Every structure is written in C-alpha cells, then in structure tokens.
Amino acid sequence: MVTKRIIPCLDIKDGRTVKGVNFVELRDAGDPVELAQRYSEEGADELVFLDITATKEKRKTLVNLVEKVARKVSIPFTVGGGISSVEDVNMLLRAGADKVSINSSAVKNPALIEELANKFGSQCIVLAVDAKLIDGQWKVHLVGGRVATEIDLFEWVEEAVRLGAGEILFTSMDHDGTKNGFANETLSALAERVNVPIIASGGAGNVQHFADTFTAGKADAALAASVFHYGEIEIGDLKEELKEQGINMRI
Predict the structure, then answer these.
(1) Distance between CA atoms of 75 and 58, rounded to whole angstroms?
(2) Whether the Cβ atoms of residue 192 and residue 173 lie closer than 8 Å to each other
(3) Number of Cβ within a 10 Å radius of residue 200
(4) CA 49 to chain CA centroid, nearest Å
(5) Is 114:125 a contact under the CB 8 Å cutoff?
(6) What are the distances in angstroms from CA 58 to CA 51, 132, 140?
(7) β-pairing, 167-172 with 125-134?
(8) Where are the alpha helices (DSSP H) in 104-229?
(9) Domain residue ranges of the chain, discontinuous segments joined by +
C-alpha cells in the first residue's frame, strides 16, 4: 500500500509566510524558517516553499531564504516561484531544495518541462497548477492566480506529464483557504488520467478533509497551510488519526 504524505506549504511574500482565502486577503502567518523547523520536527513528510510574488514581480526566488530553511529541515523540500531556466533550478538545488515547482513559466514555455526533466530527472520536477471552475470547466490561472487563461486543467496536466513532469500539485482556487474540504471529484479525475503522484491543495479544514482526499480524491499527498500555521491541526495528531482510519501514513 502506498504511503500517503502530509505536506505543509509556506507561501512567501516579502520574506514572510502569508495565507489568504481564494488567493486574496493575505495575512501574516509567521517566520518561514521557524515554521519549517517546526513542521520538520512534527513529522511532516515534505515541505513546499512557494515565493508567490516572484513571477508577478519578475524576479527570482529568494535564494538566501531557501538556504536558511534547508538548514533547518530534514525532510524533502520543494521550492517554487519565478523559476524559468536550468540555471534557476541549479541555483535552488545548490541552496538545498530537493525538488522544484514550476507553474506560469511552464505554461508559457512547455518545452521547459522537458528540458528540466531531461537535465534533473522527472522526480525533481513538480508541475503546480492553479485552476478555477468557470462555466463548468476548470481553467488554468497564472501569476499566482492573477491571470486567467482558456487552458483546460485536464489537457494541460496530461501534456505536462507527457513532457516529463514527475508530480502534479493541483490547487483549486475555489477551495483555497475556505476550510470546506478539497476538490475531491476533480482530484480523482486527474488521478484517473495520469500515472504520476497528485498533491491535493486548497480547502483543508479538519482531519476528515484529509481522509476524504486520500480516499474519494485518490490523492497521493495533501498540502495545507493555515490549519498548520495557526495551530488548528498538529501534524503528528493528524497522521495518527488518519492511520486509525486505515490510511497508510509514515509515523
């Protein structure tokens, strides 16, 4: 049985961890280095660090902050934000990242996925997809959710996997920060279409939401932010409760 993963997410703006609802109304959630260390010690399986304004501000990810976080964690560490070249990935891997997450740059230049997968291996390349349900269709959004496109979520994910993406991080913008549960029907449909791990993101509010996304949503991993940042759910307790429900967790 495949072990399911719990992944806290650090959304970074101006060097601080932030969290909003539906990608807006961001509020401070603490120091990213302190949070990263805490999550590593609490038993998180992995950590995701997203510099959410790097693309909008047309700059690279905050490498110094990545280095500080990497020194404090002993779990796999994925970094995203403003990545658009082999050189960017080299720099982040040297700074301590284990994987990189690409989003807007991959949509604008799909060949980048293939280039990075060939250079670093598919296991290193996570495709992040932010999408919103519009008139019954899931449409991909770019630049931290600010720019809508006509790109279909499912078609894009299938193409990205064909090009070499080794993992999909799907965030439902409609569910983000609502604490009403993950987009399980959509996650399940994605899992049926591609044979790489799917990370569920957007909507975690309680333990049952995690259980549901691993069962009904067929997700391989569940990513969350505010429930961890503000102490509403403790990772060790979450994993114990999920294990009691028959979900295979690393304790």
Answers:
(1) 29
(2) no
(3) 34
(4) 8
(5) no
(6) 12, 23, 20
(7) parallel
(8) 104-108, 111-120, 153-163, 184-193, 207-215, 226-229
(9) 5-244
Question: Is residue 212 among the annotated active site residues?
Answer: no
Q: What angle do CA 62, 64, 70 make, to 5 degrees?
A: 100
pTM above 0.85, yes or no: yes
| Distance from C-alpha of 51 to C-alpha of 55, rounded to nearest angstrom | 8
Residue written as token pair 């899931």: 138
Measured CA to CA, the distance from residue 140 to residue 149 in angstroms comes to: 6
Length of the chain: 251
Give CATH for domain 5-244. 3.20.20.70
Question: Could you tell me if 46 and 31 are in contact, meaning their C-beta atoms sit under 8 angstroms apart?
Answer: no
The per-residue pLDDT for range 182-240, each reduced to its tens digit, is 999 999 999 999 999 999 999 999 999 999 999 999 999 999 998 998 899 999 999 99
Query: Is 237 one of the annotated active-site residues of the chain?
Result: no
Name the catalytic one among 130, 176, 212, 220. Answer: 130
Residue 167: strand pairing partners: 126
